[in-house]
Amino acid sequence: MDLTREEESALKGEQGEILQMAYRILVATGEATDAEKLIPIEWAHLSGVNYNTIGDAGEEFLSGISKDARVKVKTTLNPMGFDIDNVSNYGLDENFISKQLSIRNSYETMGVTPSFSCIPYEIFDIPKDGTQVAFAESNAAIHANSYDNLKTNKESSFSALASAITGKSPYSSLRKEDTPNVTIRMKVNNPNELTYGMLGFFAGKVGDTSVNISGLADMDKRQCKAMCGGMGTSGTCAKFLFGDGNSDCEKVDFDEKEMQNVHDELNTAEKGDLITLGSPQLGLDEISDLAGKLKGRSFQKRCMIFCPRTVKEQARKIGYTNELERAGCEILSDCCTCLTPLINKENVDAVTTNSIKGAFYLKNSTGVDVNLKSLSQIIEDETR
Amino acid sequence: MKILVQGKAQGIILKSNDPINFLGTVDKKTGIISDKNHDLFQKSIKDCILVFPSGVGSSVGAYTIYSIKSNNSAPLAMICTKTDLTVATGCALTNIPLVMVSDEEFSSFQSGQKISLDTESSNPITFLK
User: Fold this and answer.
1) A106 contacts in B (CB within 8 Å)?
2) What is the pTM of this model?
3) Could you give the domains of chain A?
4) What is the pLDDT of residues B81-92, one digit of tens each?
5) Hey, is the C-beta of A223 within 8 angstroms of any chain B C-beta?
6) Which sequence spans correspond to the domains of chain B?
7) How many CB atoms are located within 10 Å of the residue B42 CB?
8) ipTM of the complex
């Protein structure tokens, strides 16, 4: 990769340890993605916030670098482990809370906007078409490339952090024109968001950096997010293009049988003792839709709803919050189904969710069983 | 063969034909794999030369690599066939040597083989007896 004289100097450590670390990460990223140079980016979205995922090593790392590191471009942040407003209801230990607040503090010291959201594409204005960004959260990177006309790698926590600190990212293939060599043909009829989550999960396993998907009907926001979440979980893929692609593309069908395979991999329980909605977090449209569906009905078991803080505040003003709480929902901002310590196997055996991404991490990391159902099925089965 | 992170290592190969989602399926203290569907289920990746197709999934997996390194449970080196930034940047930050190999080279590796890796050498990988 060609570096400018200033970039070379930073890589050698002549501009301090932080920039040296950042450039070392960017060079490894560039070599891995066959980039020939670094280019400016306008927005970084960081992952690596939840103490449950980054642990003591991560907390100490961030505390250390925050003494000197400052972000150079607009930088937003993924969810953390809990919602400070109601964390006292969940009996979380003091050590977790203090370590989480230390992480929060480190990011704020570096100049990061504490958005604690995995759906930056829904709560911030989208820059103009073709803008180069660096999104670490996998569903957000895929959403940015596929729906928002932005350009990003499927960044790691460290490559996005390095981009935030330097304002640069390698000019990788995904930032140019990427031509997929595989086309997934959607063959399942009457898909709901769960189907799209499974399609994404399947596509992520098949594709390399991007895939074509053909045979899609119009999708609503919930379905788009489900597909991005599923794809981000299973693979290295960072983008889908809609349509058949070139004639020389390998064609792979996503049919009932393939869908059943994904379902069997992730669905391990007939029913759950807790329902979670929001992985990725719910946006205002989904909250509004949910409030409508719950009119006159109530959940018969606990239901946790995860959304960004800005969405929770808007929902409160509009009156959705009252409606959801009346129906028995617990509304949490700043955190997400994935790897929140508020769900753990000491108090939960199985979780019902419509999220493929949530299901994967609940099963493999939280260690609970998962019961997959679409939202409409959840409302039908679990409310009265 | 492409070298992504420089370094030297010598050790026993632990090979997986499944990609690895470091976040959530690798224990950040012990390096043990917790995904029941993974071919390394319940095995630890500590102190081996880890050969696998690629990292997949969450971007936070890079922190898992940082954690296992901090907890002395990291592989000595990693060998992949496909690019993933969680692995590339996790290894770059922690100085775990990382090389990319072709599918043919990948199929020549077997668990239990002892190898020496030196990215500075003209022949970076040598099989030892």
Assistant:
1) none
2) 0.96
3) 5-175 (3.30.499.10), 182-264 (no CATH), 267-382 (3.30.499.10)
4) 998 999 999 999
5) no
6) 2-128
7) 10
8) 0.92
